[in-house]
Specification:
This protein has about 110 residues and is an alpha+beta fold. About 25% of the residues lie in helices and about 50% in strands.
Length: about 110
């Protein structure tokens, strides 16, 4: 399924699954944000602080189950496994060119 994931999201997921913190952080625009179940982290420092505990720092991996694109957003449903949280999750990405402006995480 990962071959069906459009760029820049495919590269982002690859970086996440490699636990590549710089690749993960560099995928976002300077003003990028993560909305994790209503908790919003904006900018590189805030995203890094969140990720250190709950995403890259939790050794998370995402196995893609489905991908869709609509209204300029890329939605990935996948099985998230980490030392922090596990389960089917929905990741909605807003992109600008080759960067992510917002990643919204909800129940898959």
């Amino acid at each position: 399924m990962s071959s069906n994931v459009p760029e820049p999201i495919a590269a982002f997921i690859d970086a996440v699954n490699r636990h590549d913190e710089d690749g993960f952080l560099d995928a976002f625009t300077v003003e990028g944000a993560v909305d994790d179940w209503g908790r919003v982290f904006s900018g590189r420092a805030a995203i890094k602080g969140w990720s250190d505990k709950e995403f890259i720092g939790a050794r998370g991996t995402l196995s893609v189950e489905s991908v869709s694109t609509a209204d300029g957003k890329i939605t990935v449903i996948g099985d998230w496994r980490s030392n922090y949280a596990n389960g089917l999750s929905k990741f909605v990405f807003d992109v600008d060119g080759d960067k992510i402006t917002r990643m919204t995480i909800r129940e898959g």
